[in-house]
Amino acid sequence: MNAPRELKTLQLEIDGKTVTALEGQTLWQAARGQGTTIPHLCHAPDHGEHGLRAQGNCRACVVEVQGERTLSASCCRTVQPGMVVHTATPRVQRAQRLVLELLRADVPPTPEGQAPLRHDSELDHWCEDRGVSHSRFAPRPAVPADTSHPAMTVNLSACIQCTRCVRACRDEQGNDVIGLAFRGGHAQIVFDQRDPMGESTCVACGECVQACPTGALSPANGSAAAAPTRRVDSVCPFCGVGCQLTYNAARLCVKGRFGFDYVHHADRLRTPLIRRADAPKDPLKLKPAHWSELFRPASWAEALDVAAQGLRRLRDQHGPQALAGFGSAKGSNEEAYLFQKLVRTGFGTHNVDHCTRLCHASSVAALLEGIGSGAVSNPVRDVAQAEVVLLIGANPTVNHPVAASFIKNAVAQGTKLILADPRRTELQRQAWRTLAFKADTDVALLNALLHTIVDEGLVDEAFVRERTEDFEDLKRHLKDFSPEAMAPVCGIDAPTLREVARTFATSRASMILWGMGVMGPGRRRTARRAGPDRGGGDEGHPRRHGARHVHRRGEPGDERPRCGPRAAGLGCAGTPGGAGHLPHRNRRPGGCGAAGQRLA
Predict the structure, then answer these.
(1) How many other C-beta atoms are found inside a 10 Å radius of the C-beta of residue 246?
(2) pLDDT tens string 216-252
(3) What is the DSSP letter of 64?
(4) Strands (E), 441-548
(5) CA-CA distance, 268 to 362, in Å (whole number)?
(6) Does the reported pTM lie above 0.85?
(7) Quick one: 595 exposed, middle or buried, by C-beta within 10 A (0-12, 13-18, 19+)?
(8) What Cα–Cα distance (Å) separates residue 93 from each residue in 83, 127, 213, 261, 461?
(9) In the beta sheet, which residues pair with residue 17?
(10) Exposure b/e, 63-96, CB count within 10 A at least 16 = b
(11) Is 417 helix (H, G, I), strand (E, B) or coil?
(12) Contact predicate 494/530, CB 8 Å
């Protein structure tokens, strides 16, 4: 985690032009900077945020360096002062065409009338660019396609062994599923121990599909064969990580990349339906395949009129308290605002809530009490800036795979991961220390860590004095929670507790990731202890980059406490712009079920 050193500039000559490059840049990068295009297949500079690291094994990017006998792979040859480079001499062009011709022999031509494996094959692009229309060389024996996976198809007959899929799986997602087995002409891409893809430990993130330049790895539905008609930037709706579907450091999980087939499912409701007058409300008779026995199609105007009339009838007959609204954190801020407006002004009641109440009310109340805000302080990707990360009450490899990939990347760069979980999760392989505490003893564990930080003087006294309250009360409370006293309770020995606390408190930047495991009913105390300022996670690191807390939540809107459903009014305790979920004693008059409230 050393600070990056200042890079020096140097000058070299590329195709007769003087070029200024940064020390450590490759010839390919320097040439690209001046607008020179060099073929590349194993090198993926635009994959993700930093690109897939150069491997130099396809040799399509060879250039000629003056004074050297052999050609050099420009993607992994670094620049030197005074170097003279030629990218388009007859020798270079012959070598590039020969490499592309050899690679073309490994990929069978698309049969007449059949769609290609992918419409934007990079091999096809570079062959066309360099005038390679066919190959003189005999192809490798055909390999049957592996269709064992429901989301992806493996066509190794089209594999050029660029190993981009290997680097995408290992370096980007940190899954270590794909490898290159055997040697020489027998080399082959494999999954685990040469298992079929569908039977391997592949988590179907699809990173390899995105990285593959030929379509040897492609979506199972053949969607890569068709050129898209337009590109729309949008956010994945499945969880609260907020992955952007067209750009998110190239990362998505199985749901974000392949989980949209429900759009075309036969049971999807595409037209408003109104129950037939002769159809009783019997759930046992509701069968999607035979919906016409109970419902009839209707226009949107008719369906909305029927719904509005029914709600109005209930309100007039039974009063406003007979109605309630329940929104979703998957909706936009605008939708949340309009929905609460409908309930408050149309229904005439404050009986409006949303799904965050089900699982996050305790955490929001604890954070408001402990640090004054129910919001997370950092994006998950800031783990790359932290020296120590404490993960408790969450299993991101299962629930937030993209967030887990950022954690794995950070660990690979030297970040220490402290995993506190009674279960053995996949991230235990990356953990510096694993605190497998006894179930339901997380409060004892966290208090023991706090005791060590306070007792050994590892607190930033100036920060505590200027920005916190009731710290003396906290110190008195922690006297009875020494690691020695808590070790029998939580099942973690005292030396380990002290070592973890010291490491966390003395690092340059420490970060807490916490989730639903510390937020069950009645767990406000635990959530507060897991918070950074009140709970001791950040007393020594005030406002440093990467030294804060992040709560891994379930829905997209759950990650927007300041501007999401709560701020838009989807909460029985608050109106738009209000405080949202508050402890019961602080609720405003006119909350859920309260009679005689005044509408805003």
Answers:
(1) 9
(2) 999 987 777 777 788 888 888 888 788 887 754 568 8
(3) E
(4) 510-514
(5) 35
(6) no
(7) exposed
(8) 20, 12, 21, 45, 67
(9) 14
(10) bbbeeeeebbbbbbbebeeebebbbeeeebeebb
(11) strand
(12) no
